[in-house]
Amino acid sequence: MSGFRHLPAFAALAVTLLCAPVAQSSVEPAVLQSAPIKGWTAVAGLTGPAVLELARTLPLSAEASSDQPWCDSAAAVAHSLRSEFDEQPVTHRADGTQLWGSDLMGTWTLVLGRNDGTQCVIASGIGYQDGTNPLAFYAKVDLG
Questions:
Q1: Please, what are the averages of pLDDT over each run of 10 residues along the chain (144 residues)?
Q2: Residue in 34, 28, 52, 56 with CA at minimum distance from that of residue 122
Q3: What phi and psi values does residue 76 have, to the nearest 5 degrees?
Q4: What pLDDT sits at residue 62?
Q5: Where does the chain have alpha helices with state H?
Q6: Can you tell me the distance from the alpha carbon of 74 to that of 81, in angstroms, rounded to the nearest whole number?
Q7: Contact call for residues 96 and 140 (beta carbons, < 8 A)
C-alpha cells in the first residue's frame, strides 16, 4: 500500500466544521489566523463539542460511509499521521483529544481517543508551527 493511503480522505475534507466564527488572539501567527479548518460534510453545521460527541460513537471507517471522520485503531492513526504528514503528538487533554502537529509540513490534526483503543480524526488544518499555543488550535474548532 502507498504511504499516502489516507491522503485523499484528508484532502476531501470540506471547510464546513464550524458553524460560527471563533475569536482569535492577536498573538497567533498570521498563517494560523488565515489557515482553513477542514471538516466532513457529515458534520456540517455541528459545533466542535457536537462533533466530539458524535465521534465517540462512529463506526470504524472500514465499516462506514466515506463521508465521516476517519476512525481506526490508535496505532493506524498514529502511523498515518507520522508517516504521511510527519506529525507528532503535541498535547493530550482530559476530554480524550490529542493535538498532533508537524513543523516540517505545517499541518495539524485533532484526534479523539476512544475507550475501545480506536481514534477518530475530528479536525485538521494547516498553519502549525512549533511553539504555537495548542489552545489556539482547539479554539479554531470550538473546543477551546
A1: 42 30 34 48 78 90 79 96 97 96 95 95 92 93 88
A2: 52
A3: -65, -40
A4: 86
A5: 7-11, 30-34, 48-55, 74-85, 134-140
A6: 11
A7: no
